[in-house]
Amino acid sequence: MKRKGFAYMGEPSTSSIGVAPTTTEMKSRTAHLGVGVPLAAGILPSEVNDHDDKFNYALLLALYTLQGIPMGLSASIPFLIQQKVQTLASTSAAHHATLAAGGAAAEAALEASHHHPHSLAELTKIAYNAQAIFALCSWPFSLKLLWAPIVDACFSKRFGRRKSWLVPVQLIAGAIMVGGSDYVESELGLGGGGGGSVDSMNVRGLTFFFFALYFLMATQDIAVDGWALTMLSKKNRGKGPICNSIGQNIGYFLSYVGFLALNDVDSSENVWRPMFGLPSKPGVGLVSLGGFVKFMGTFMLTITVLVGLFKKEIDMSIEGGDCCTISVGNGNVSKTGNDDMETLLPQKNQEILKDGEDDNDHEIDAYEIGIAETYHRLWAVVKLPAVHSLILILLTYRLPCALSDNVKFLKAVEFGLSKQTTALLSPTIVLPLGILVPIIATKIFHGHPLKQFMWAYKFRVTFVALVDVFMLLAVRTYLGGSLILGGEGTSRMIFWFLLIASTALQAIVSSMQFNAQMTFFASRVDPAIGGSYMTLLNTFANLGGTWPSSFIMYLIGQYTVPPDCKLGNDGMEICTGGRDAYFPLQIILSALGCLWIFFMGKRVQQVAELPDDAWITHIGEIEDSKEEKQEQKKGGKHA
């Protein structure tokens, strides 16, 4: 008995460190035959016949690279916010010190302080409140399942099923980046005018700008993932996930690491300008935020135009008309709108596989069964008791790790670590470990993904959190001008050791948990609706990482109290009082993580031991059974 389903509609976003979906995850989506492909006389069209896919690999890499660009740019914004507020805080402290000294300089400082009316405590709250608001911009990637069926079901046949969304979405995104480049700088307060005041920083406008880009790129991701299934030949279809992972990481690191390195004032003056033979400009980065955004937007527009003009999707003009399948009856295609609308897929009883191949796991996508039926089947998955337990786990386990995931490096920058050093840690440590750790962990925990998940989690909320605290204390001490232990050489060695260890350990446990999570998803989902089932679970997994981000940023801003600094008689600055909320919050969250392990660990074990049948909706089998009974009744009446 065949089961009905629907095809994959795009996976949730990358994590906060920009880790792209794993090959395991993506292979689970592409294990079925490519859907949404017109067939004639049972023959696959040329686009999906076995052939040389080198050009298609390059195209997919380019498209996924475009997808990673807004992500990387948005990852650099928190460091710019932190740097701006930190500069204002230093200026404010200097003004207060000058006022305390008295004299003519004090009058000038008093006049300047009118442009900096916020106290140090207020600036600290403003910084983390701004981070909390900006963290909301990535939500579209966590929620794209809500509109993915529409992208799959509505399109222009003449232009191409995937290009109908891909081209306009990328053109809009590129135009927003080119036209809004100056807007981004002005909203962040980096342009002229009020650039020296915190009041010139409009984080809400900045958040809206990147929210729009994330929404467009989430839609583009749905289209590209679907196109990869038909663009690549059947024998190479499993390599689409590799293009996804490589391309998205290229775009992310190009716009994140590339921008921060080229924007860094010291690197620009000492490295980049001498390297390129450019004149010296002290205090100015080689590239500005607005200029970099405009360049990337132009790059996106160029690629999009080339794709629109020269890359041909399967010719659908023979069918005529545009398509939007809204509703179905018992899984059958219902046509709405144009009279010449036809399904791009064969009927259920058409054989599309080679002789001897089983198609029991063939998925039916949103176009075949309609938008309404797609949402109906997603809801059937959510109502499964096994999925209830898994959703509860996914939505709660990331909160105890929220400081390490979202605040640790911002706090390090606040303590004096350069944003360039922070950015370079990602490609040199995080990326290699993200590739190697899943391979090694899979061999060690083979067949027990949730055991791997829990082992990494116990390590993550205890030892890794402790190393993070020591790392930040070392950064604050060493970059603050004091020695950590022993002489200068020993202190420098301890500083770099803790910085690298903190970064590496977080990358290891994060990669282990993500790999375990995706492996478990792939082994439990109902094959009939595997792609969308996987997307649904990933949606909740991403939501579990998204909501703690804004929450923890808000707490840091509310409970951090800067010290009160004054000039002593000897001219040295003396600071008293103050409270850094990071360290007490880390203790609370680590304790919360231990409680989570105690209470939720048993639930994780129960979920791991559930039989395969607990994860299957049986919705297709129920519909088939109803159809058989109806046919039997009709047959009985005729008899």
Largest sheet: 2 strands, antiparallel
How do the strands line up in the largest sheet?
1-2
Shape: globular
Tally of alpha and pi helices: 23
Estimated radius of gyration: 27 Å
Assembly type of the shown chains?
single chain
Write down the overall mean pLDDT.
Answer: 76
Provide the helix percentage. 55-70%
Order of helices and strands: HHHHHHEHHHHHHEEEHHHHHHHHHEEHH
How far is the N terminus from the C terminus? 26 Å
Secondary structure tally: strands: 6
Structural class of the secondary structure composition?
mainly alpha
The portion of residues forming beta strands comes to under 5%
Low-confidence stretches: 1-50, 109-117, 315-319, 328-361
Commentary on this structure:
- There is one protein chain.
- This protein is mainly α and 639 residues long.
- Helices cover 65% and strands 3% of the residues.
- The protein contains 23 helices and six strands.
- The strands form three sheets. Strands 1-2 form a two-stranded antiparallel sheet. Strands 3-4 form a two-stranded antiparallel ribbon. Strands 5-6 form a two-stranded antiparallel ribbon.
- Strand 3 (328-329) and strand 4 (332-333) form a beta hairpin.
- Helix 4 (120-134) packs antiparallel against helix 21 (530-559), helix 15 runs parallel beside helix 21 (530-559) and helix 15 runs antiparallel to helix 22.
- The longest helix is centred in the N-terminal third of the chain and has 48 residues, at 54-101.
- The chain is globular, with a radius of gyration of 27 Å.
- Mean pLDDT is 76; it is low at 1-50, 109-117, 315-319 and 328-361.
